[in-house]
Amino acid sequence: xxxxxxxxxxxxxxxxxxxxxxxxxxxxxxxxxxxxxxxxxxxxxxxxxxxxxxxxxxxxxxxxxxxxxxxxxxxxxxxxxxxxxxxxxxxxxxxxxxxxxxxxxxxxxxxxxxxxxxxxxxxxxxxxxxxxxxxxxxxxxxxxxxxxxxxxxxxxxxxxxxxxxxxxxxxxxxxxxxxxxxxxxxxxxxxxxxxxxxxxxxxxxxxxxxxxxxxxxxxxxxxxxxxxxxxxxxxxxxxxxxxxxxxxxxxxxxxxxxxxxxxxxxxxxxxxxxx
Length: 275
Description:
- The chain is of the alpha+beta class.
- 25% of the residues lie in helices and 22% in strands.
- The protein contains six helices and eleven strands.
- The strands form three sheets. The protein has a five-stranded mixed sheet with strand order 2-9-5-4-3. It has a four-stranded antiparallel sheet with strand order 1-7-8-6. Strands 10-11 form a two-stranded antiparallel ribbon.
- Helix 1 packs parallel to helix 6 (197-216) and helix 5 (174-184) packs across helix 6 (197-216).
């Protein structure tokens, strides 16, 4: 599933492609993707004549802003956006098309059909699900050491599970939780309320640094991720642990191990991350 760096990269590249384009009409081939409003015709009709003003992001969600509306989109496992000329063939995995008046189309493709779209009037998007219960952004002023420490001190769940919880901090998934924990020297099975203040400070810093570096590299292409211009990310070349089970630790040379933690496959270094 794309995490914050991948979604942020999609946001940046997509904005270059669709900014100031006017929507002529919308085609929906897989109605289950549209979660709000319930009537698909209402979703389609609302966007006719709307111009794309901006594209935002909240955690792993894209927010496409038009004149009057905010379209909240979650890519889930395989969702992708791309801009095409209307004469180009539409493949079978294309489920929503935003047809622009200039003859181009913004197409949403999703092999697994897990993605979602919620359309709200501007100003309502943050007070309703799915955005209303999200935690702070890792790059925001709200994400302080104190805020993180307060959340960690209240739970005995292991730290891997806590960091995957989008109510604690948004944007982190399996890749960047594993990487931030390695960089912090924290075992993924450590109880969250067992971390020392020094460890919390280090973890807070590494979350921000890891995500920032990943954004600069365009995210991580592990399976099928590409940005809106069809380009792969490059941060996978910088990964210390994720996807490297059985390989040597880049820091100490020990063999990296894999366990299931927080319900997810987790790779760590038994020497650098002592429980």
